[in-house]
């Protein structure tokens, strides 16, 4: 059975809730899943994954969450060729062009590591509402179709 691994950072609980929705949706699709908060793992967590998911919020003026900085730095040095991935971001539209910037930064870093983006990035304002949950289900369907 294919293994999907989710790493997330959450300050307000919104992204943690999003990661739980992702975890449940992956399980419902019939795949094995492991979900961890980013300060509990390093980038080697993805070594045995068939697909990788990052769920992150964007802090302040488009900055990575503090607790995700070490993971991100390690990711820039990691070789993930052959791994499929997708990224989900939460943020506040008040920040304009910086909305969900961290999610896009992670897409760039994962692509540089050799991983292949197989699901469109989902951007969620604050907490997941009904439309967002549908977008997350579509995201999981795209991601798991590659396995």
TrEMBL record:
The protein's required cofactors: FMN
Domain named Flavodoxin-like: residues: 4-144
Keywords annotated in UniProt: Electron transport, Flavoprotein, FMN, Transport
Protein name (record): Flavodoxin
Primary role: Low-potential electron donor to a number of redox enzymes.
Organism: Enterococcus ureilyticus
Family: Belongs to the flavodoxin family.
Alphabetized Pfam families for the sequence: Flavodoxin_1
GO molecular function term, any single one: electron transfer activity
